[in-house]
Every structure is written in C-alpha cells, then in structure tokens.
Specification:
With 234 residues, this protein is of the alpha/beta class. The protein contains six helices and 13 strands.
C-alpha cells in the first residue's frame, strides 16, 4: 500500500467539523499533519498516534500555509485537505491511481479553476470554476487547484511552507509555483457530491469567505496578473 501523507490547517470555529472530517480521512493516510491556528490546547479528536499536531502558538499562526508545513520533509504522496470537507472512503485510492496514471508528472485534484486572462479584474469573478461537489465526466486541466483537494507525489513539484509569502491564499501561491515549474494541474472525473461539505461547516467564517474581502481579493488578482501569461499544461 502506498504511503500517503495528509496536510490540514484549521482554527477554533471549525472544531466541530473536525469530528466529522477526521474519521473519514484518518483510515486513508499514513500520517495526518494538522496545523492548529489560534488553539491553546489540542482537541481530543486529534490525539492519535498517526496525527502530528503543530501548534500555531508555538511557531506562529500561518493560516492555510499550515497545510504545507511538513511537505518538504516527505518523499511520498502528499495530499492537502480542508477541515470542512467530507472525503469519500476511496479518496486516497483514486487520487494515488490518478497520480500514477500521469507518471507522477502532475498535481491531481477535484476543485479548481481556469482564469479568464482577457478580463482578469477580480480573481473570484474572472474565472471558470469546477467545484468539488460537482460532477465531472472527463479530466480537466486548470490553472489553479483548490488546496483542499490537491494530491501529488513530492517528486513532482518543489514546494515548502516558504513558497507561500502571504497566508490564506495558498491556492494562488501553489498555482504560481506550478506555472514556474511547468507542472500540470488536472481535475479527475467523478460523480456528483463525491466530495461534500461537512454538516457543521460555518461558511461565514471560512478562509474562502474571508479571502473574498475587497483588499485581499485585490491582492490575489494583482498577484495573478503580475506573473503574466498563465498556461494550461497537458
């Protein structure tokens, strides 16, 4: 069986979600790294021999960058996951197969977007989004993969926590690294709601909802435009 490592970042408003998400992913991974932003104590659900907890209070909270805290120390399959998504029991199996089908030369995922580069005025509105809840009948190349559903072998792309200069826009930074290294981002086919929202997820406090604020959205848009031409690598 392949060794698969998962990286997750979370914070206190999602504590209830952890009880819904962790039981689904823990049986599928060799080890789960969980970065705790804003926590003073470790939730009981995370006390497990295959869970490695990183306390933000000890090293400095870093938002969603925490998903990648140990990625450069792993020489196997690495999945970045969110604390508010319910992953199916065959998630690791299907993503590892997809990675191997692409000879470990691509990052695979379930959620991502193609940028509208002719009219890039707002990152959240100037794109065509394929959502993780939706059905997809064939593979799709994208510019940006949502880091709640990214899976890759660590030999595929050189990445570390230092690849993310600003917190809570990991998707954009990860996409930029893939562009620079010319690594394909590919979404896999699946049925409707193969992935689903955790019932307790408080949408108004998500990193996504906070990232859509005016100033942060402008920064993401400017970062994307400053890079220049984004390509789709097959």
């Amino acid at each position: 069986m392949a060794k698969v490592y998962y990286g997750m970042a979370t914070y206190p408003p999602r504590k209830k979600c952890l009880k819904e998400v962790i039981p689904n992913i823990l049986p599928q991974c060799t080890k789960l790294f969980v970065f705790l932003n804003g926590y003073q104590d470790v939730p009981k659900i995370l006390v497990h021999p295959r869970i490695n907890v990183i306390m933000g209070k000890d090293v400095g909270d870093c938002g969603d960058i925490g998903k990648f805290y140990y990625v450069d120390q792993i020489k196997e399959y690495y999945f970045t996951v969110d604390d508010d998504i319910i992953y199916p029991p065959d998630y690791s199996q299907k993503l590892v197969k997809a990675i191997d089908d692409h000879q470990r030369k691509a990052v695979l995922g379930v959620h991502g977007c193609v940028l509208n580069q002719k009219n890039m005025w707002n990152y959240y509105r100037s794109r065509s989004l394929t959502h993780y809840r939706g059905k997809l009948t064939q593979e799709r190349c994208v510019h940006i993969i949502g880091t709640g559903t990214a899976a890759f072998h660590t030999s595929t792309i050189k990445i570390s926590k230092d690849s993310f200069p600003k917190p809570n826009m990991a998707d954009v930074w990860f996409g930029l690294e893939a562009q620079k290294q010319r690594v394909p981002f590919i979404l896999i086919p699946r049925q409707m709601r193969w992935l689903n929202d955790a019932p307790s997820a408080p949408q108004t406090t998500s990193i996504y909802s906070k990232s859509k604020n005016k100033s942060h959205g402008k920064f993401q848009t400017r970062t994307i435009k400053e890079y220049g031409r984004w390509e789709l690598f097959a």
